[in-house]
Amino acid sequence: MKEEQQQDTSGRRSFLKNSLMVSIGFMGLKSFSGASAFAGNAPLLYDQYGPLLTDSKGIFNLPKGFSYKIISRSGELMDDGFLSPGRNDAMAAFRAKDGKVWVIRNHEISSDDPENGPFGIDNSKLQDLPESAIYDRGFGKNPSLGGTTTFLFNEDTQEIEYQYLSLAGTIRNCAGGPTPWNSWLTCEETFDSKLEGVNEHNHGYVFEVPVSDTAVLAEPVPLKGMGRFNHEAVAVDPDSGFVYLTEDRGDGLIYRFIPKEQGNFRAGGKLQALSIKGKKGFDTRNWEAQTMTIGDKLEVDWIDLENIDPEEDDLRLRGFDQGAARFARGEGMWYGNDEVYFACTNGGKAKQGQVFRYIASDEEKKGNEKTGGYLELFAEPNDKNILRACDNLTVAPWGDVILCEDNSRPRLIGITPKGEIYHLGLNVGYESELTGACFSPSGKTLFVNIQHAGLTLAITGPWKG
Fold first, then answer.
1. How far is CA 247 from each of CA 229, 313, 332, 435, rounded to the nearest angstrom?
2. Which one, of 407, 403, 393, 452, lies nearest residue 108 by Cα?
3. Contacting residues for 139 by C-beta, under 8 A, at least 6 apart
């Protein structure tokens, strides 16, 4: 009887599978004509650049006409005498003189990982830094090894011409975001606290790193007005000057920082949490129920937060109690197309990832802090063959969202402004997540990291810009 039931079940599965394939065939015209990938359907991949071709070097597969070049490796001696750190993470590119490009790059390094740090395996190069130039020396024995590097890239030669350490003494600099005035906001993905003999200061902050033509370390001042929590990424609206922030927790919040002085984050400001109007404690994760579907635009309120520099990692819990919405590990965030896009790594019924966009209202863009905009679920395929564990993201100059996946065989994923999803690249050489996708100002070069291998790649090709 059990065997007969199993055979019957198998038959039903085959019938349903065949029926589904026929249904998908009919869905194809709709999917390729610009319809968004609705959560719960089974979207087809959009044919943006064609199939990925096998890389003869066995490192990174790309479509026809595209190529990559490894431009940086961890452990290299930089121009300032320090070593290029490992665990490369989020990046941003800025216009430099003579058509060249400045890139500021995060390094997601913990204090117990000197092998990937900038000071050598024994941290001997730490003595080359004055105490004022590093945020946390760890009492000289346990320096915080995260931070940022900056390099000057020549798009004509596809070579780095100059590179240096630009922020030192922070922990796990994961993501961040560029500002309109040529600086990079780098975020600590940690809540490590001050501890005698270990850490000299609390961690869990945002720091600002300006673009500099010379090897200068940024002043390591934590922007405490942006809160202390497990930071991931930020996006700055150039119109209002407001800063939006993600939090890498399974029950994390989305935050908005309103500076007292536009462009001067050290002056402090107000930190708020995103709430869905009329729906206190709304759950966007779609784990238990489909609370959001693709294309829905939910009106947003912003809740003022208190005690934003807490001793306990409870800011998100207090915000939720006040009515803030919950998100499934907010990660990459970027301003583009006059909107803010952000990824939630394990959102959706299949826990394979969601992409949201926040659309600020006209009044909000004018700097009216009493107004909110709209939250839209932009993508949620619920199919790991389409999208899996989306992390860092950027917006291409022509409007496509480019996502990095966080798994052992990750892909670069593209999503057009219409919601069409395509595969742009595949890491076949290393068991490592991809990080830091960002375009040069010209749009010719896409930079991306293979994190655990300590590699930075420059990708060029026939972009559809």
1. 7, 12, 10, 17
2. 452
3. 197, 198, 200
> Each residue of 209-239: b (16+ CB within 10 Å) or e?
bbbbeebebbebebbbbbbbbbbbbbbbbee
Does residue 127 sit in helix, strand or coil? Answer: helix
Torsion 53-55-59-64 (CA) sign:
negative
- What DSSP designation does 87 have? S
Contacts 24+ apart (CB under 8 A), 94-98: 94/178, 94/182, 94/211, 94/441, 95/441, 96/152, 96/211, 96/213, 97/213
- Number of Cα atoms under 13 Å in the Cβ half of residue 244: 31
For 292-337, write each residue's pLDDT tens digit. Answer: 999 999 999 999 999 999 999 999 999 999 999 999 999 999 999 9
**236: which strand partners?**
243
Where do we find the tokens 């819990």?
A: 317
H or E segment at 17?
Answer: helix 2-32
Instruction: Tell me the DSSP string of 23-70.
Output: HHHHHHHHHHTT----TTS-PPPP-SS-PEEPPTTSSEEEETT-EEEE
Q: For residue 287, how many other CB atoms are within 10 A of its CB? A: 17
Q: What is the 3-state secondary structure (H, E, C) of 342-374?
A: EEECCCCCCCCCEEEEEECCHHHHCCCCCCCCE
pLDDT confidence bin for 43, thresholds 50/70/90: low
14 band by pLDDT with thresholds 50, 70 and 90: very low
E strands, 262-324, in order: 264-276, 297-304
Q: What is the pLDDT of residue 134?
A: 98
Q: Which of 134, 128, 115, 123 lies closest to 81, judged by CA?
A: 128
Cα–Cα distance for residue pair 40/36, rounded to 1 Å? 12
For CA atoms 10, 16, 19, 20, the dihedral sign is negative
CA distance 73 to 461: 22
Q: Which helix (H) or strand (E) holds 18?
A: helix 2-32
Q: Using alpha carbons, select from 198, 178, 194 the residue that is nearest to residue 186.
A: 178
pLDDT tens by residue, 90-147: 999 999 999 999 999 999 999 999 999 999 999 999 999 999 999 999 999 999 999 9
Q: How far apart, in whole angstroms, are the C-alpha atoms of residue 396 and residue 405?
A: 17
**334's tokens:** 């970027």
For Cα atoms 370, 375, 377, give the angle at the middle one, nearest 5 degrees.
175
**What is the model's pTM?**
0.91
H helix runs in 271-389, sequence order: 315-321, 362-365
Binned at pLDDT 50, 70 and 90, residue 6 comes out as very low
C-alpha 150/C-alpha 207 separation (Å) is 15
| CA 393 – CA 410 distance, rounded (Å) | 13
Amino acid sitting at position 262: Q
